[in-house]
Structure formats: C-alpha cells, structure tokens
Amino acid sequence: MFKAIYISKSDDKQQCAIRDINETELPEGDVTLRVEYSTLNYKDGLAITGKGPVVRKFPMVPGVDGAGVVTASSHSGFKAGDKAVLNGWGVGETHWGCLAQRARLKGDWLIALPEKFSTRQAMAIGSAGYTAMLCVLALEKHGVTPEQGEIVVTGAAGGVGSVVIALLAKLGYRVVASTGRVSEADYLKALGAAEVIDRATLSAPGKPLAKKRWAGAIDTVGSHTLANVCAAMRYRGVVAACGLAQGMDFPASVAPFILRGVTLAGIDSVMAPRALRVQAWSRLARDLDAAKLDTISQEINLAAAIPAAAELLAGKVRGRLVVNVNG
Question: Is residue 2 very low, low, confident or very high in pLDDT (cuts 50, 70, 90)?
Fold first, then answer.
C-alpha cells in the first residue's frame, strides 16, 4: 500500500483526497518508480482543483513530474536501483502520475537523473525548469546572444520565470523581469534579473508595433502580454512562448513578423522528444547554479499539495513547490 493524491468523479462532481492505494492498482508500464519527490505545477493545480479540463479520465493520480528510485523494470534502459526523472508525457492527465509514493510508467518516458542533482533538486527544477531550459535552447538556436540586447521574462516570479532568470543571468544575458508581484523584486534580482518591471506595462491592449526594445523574450503569460512583447521586439528578435497564465488568446497583428522579422517559437515540454529532453537536462546540470534552487523552491508534504493548488492558480506561490511525497 502507498499514499497518493486521488482524483475521482461522480455525478459530474470532482473529489480530491489523499488515499491509500494498493500497488496492484497501478496502471500498465515497464518501470515501477519509488517516488521520492514530485512538484506542484500549474497543470497539477488545474487537475486538483478541477478548474481546467486537464484530467482526461477518472480516477486519476495527478503529478506531471516525479523523481525517485526504480524498484522494478523490464525496460532495457533502467534497472532496479537507478534514479530517474519524469516530466510530462500526459502523466497526470491520461496516466497516473507522481503525486504519490509509487508510480508505474513507461521507461521511454524517463531519463536518468543527472549526477549533479539529488531527486529533491530535480523536482525543484521539474517541468518548469526543464521548460525554462527548452526556452533558452530556442533562443540560442535562433542566434540570440547576450551582445544583442535585453531579454524580457514575463511571469517572472513563477516556476518557469524563476529558473529561466537564473539560467540567462549565468549565461551572460541582461534580463528584465516582468511580474505582477513587484514586491518580489529583491527575489528576482537575487536570481539575476537586472531590472524588474510591473506586468501592467505589458498586460493591457497595445499597438501592433511598439518601440524596439527586446532582443529576446520568454513568455509564460500569453494574451495581450505576448502580443505586446512581440510588438516591442528588435529586428530579428526571438520570442519563446510556453504559457497561458493571462489567457490562450493572442490579440496581435502580423506586423512584428513581416516588418521586423520576429520569430515566435512555441515551446512544448510535454511531448518533446527524448533527445531534446536529455539535452535540456544536460544543459541544466551545466548551466544552472544548483545553490539557487533553495532560493527558488520550498518544500511541502503530500497533504499540503491539495490546498496549495488553489494558491498556485491564484498567483500566490513564488518559484517552485517541491512535494515530499513521503513527508
């Protein structure tokens, strides 16, 4: 028996609680993981609260991220005793996830835990940090260098924003952090932000083109914020878009793209190919200052993850929530 967050539904009403589950109830998979740490991501918040159609079948154990020790495996890439990391692949949506003390998964979904990180540190990074690295890789792929100018990061005090600021600052970029919580300015500057601006300067309806400012951008917000970021890009600037905290809409024009050659690069972390995942985690091990993970993250236990989900959706959580599933 093991403990897990268990989401069920009856009469179109969702229930969510901690439940004892027998290991025989786990779904099919060729690797069984003794989970040590998970995280609470935005998608997990939607699943737990029922405020978004994340869960595709019931019952469901949420948790799109997990890190732990393999206890059984018929997959050629893993053996008992190996430490592994999971991010995405629809886990917590269509397949039971890692906000639990056990998970049964497909080995193809897992990557070996980089030696630099503990399982706790891996979950302080989680899908948010792994997505942040994918965004940085996208800027690099399109030729954005520190010499070209400022990089704006929206939703900067959230999980993706916090990690991406730390990464970009270490790589030598001048980072401008956009946030609705200007009270977190000291936190953002400690991560490496050179300047902090109020999100209100970007979140209202704007013009098709604005004064050129940004050489690159990483947007976790969407909607008017993304449109205004695109409008203020420098010639051949690059925007990596990975979130929708303000909305899924994109009320923009084609002007930045056809007059300034701006590139809008979509970032999908859920179904990204394994080779890209391995590259991202390898770069995280190289380029992320592990000491900053304590600043970025806070630890909670499994039971606390349920009420914390609503706090996360309300934008009241700074950085990353690491869930000690055995705590």
Answer: very high
C-alpha to C-alpha distance for 216 and 143, rounded to whole angstroms: 10
The three-class DSSP label of residue 121 is helix
315 pLDDT higher than 90: no
Q: In the beta sheet, which residues pair with residue 195?
A: 176
How many alpha carbons lie under 13 Å from residue 208 in its C-beta half-sphere?
A: 8
What separation in angstroms does the CA of 300 have from each of 6, 111, 158, 309, 321?
17, 24, 17, 12, 7
Residue 68, beta-bridge partner list: 35, 84
Tokens encoding 16: 């969510």
Q: Which helix (H) or strand (E) holds 91?
A: none
Average pLDDT over residues 24-46: 95
Look up the pTM and report it. Answer: 0.92
- Return the pLDDT at 317: 87
Q: What is the mean pLDDT of the chain?
A: 95
Burial of 24 by CB count in 10 Å (0-12 exposed, 13-18 middle, 19+ buried)?
Answer: exposed
Place of tokens 């690491």: 322
pLDDT, one tens digit per residue, over 55-107 is 999 999 999 999 999 999 999 999 999 999 999 999 999 999 999 999 999 99
Question: How long is the chain?
Answer: 327
Read off φ and ψ for residue 148, nearest 5 degrees.
Answer: -80, -15
- In sequence order, the β-bridge partners of residue 34 are 69, 102
Q: How far apart are CA 320 and CA 145, in angstroms?
A: 27
Ordered by where they begin, the domains of the chain are 2-113+290-324 (3.90.180.10), 127-266 (3.40.50.720)
Alpha-carbon distance of 321 to 327, in angstroms, equals 14
